[in-house]
């Protein structure tokens, strides 16, 4: 899977491993490279640099999650999982991307993935991506990314609202999440992806772009606030 985020799951509870592994498999743009209940077995894979994000339990018999973070250093991004809320404050001292309380719901997992994408984009070298080609009903259309105000999900299409007008495409919102540069575009609602470069302001739970008030979905609020924040 080209350019997929490579994921690992470590948890001493088999059911917890299975749940997160299933979430990873059903999420576009993610690839499960390794899952295990044995933390020491995972060390060689981590040290080879084959993992982008590690979903890691805290309380484990061989080595705790926090001890493992010290061992691997900054080999990959880490999302901690635990049934105990009291670890939350301590965990952020280790620069983790997110902290998931069990049982982990898919919505909460999806929010953590948004944060992972944003963090990986921050650390990735910036490369120019001035345009993309998308499928419309009768042609393959070039779209200059700088001209995109926002993307809207319709019943059978998605609509690119641009400075030049509206373009209907047969692509999917999930596909756009995968291919658009994360430092410039973010999904704020099940029906909207926005271009940060064209945001005018945020007001009362809505993103405003050229006079259009676009709602921010509950699932995406925290990620959006982190992505668009004052200096």
UniProtKB/TrEMBL annotation:
Sequence positions bearing 4-aspartylphosphate: 57
Domain Response regulatory: from-to ranges: 6-117
Gene Ontology molecular function, alphabetical: DNA binding; phosphorelay response regulator activity
Record Pfam families: LytTR (PF04397), Response_reg (PF00072)
InterPro entries registered for this protein in UniProt: CheY-like_superfamily, LytR-like, LytTR_DNA-bd_dom, Sig_transdc_resp-reg_receiver
SMART domains: LytTR (SM00850), REC (SM00448)
Membrane spanning stretches: none
Record keywords: DNA-binding, Phosphoprotein
Domain called HTH LytTR-type: residue spans: 132-204
PANTHER family referenced in this protein's UniProt entry, alphabetically: STAGE 0 SPORULATION PROTEIN A HOMOLOG, TRANSCRIPTIONAL REGULATOR-RELATED
Name the UniProt record assigns to this protein: DNA-binding response regulator
Species whose genome carries this gene: Filimonas zeae
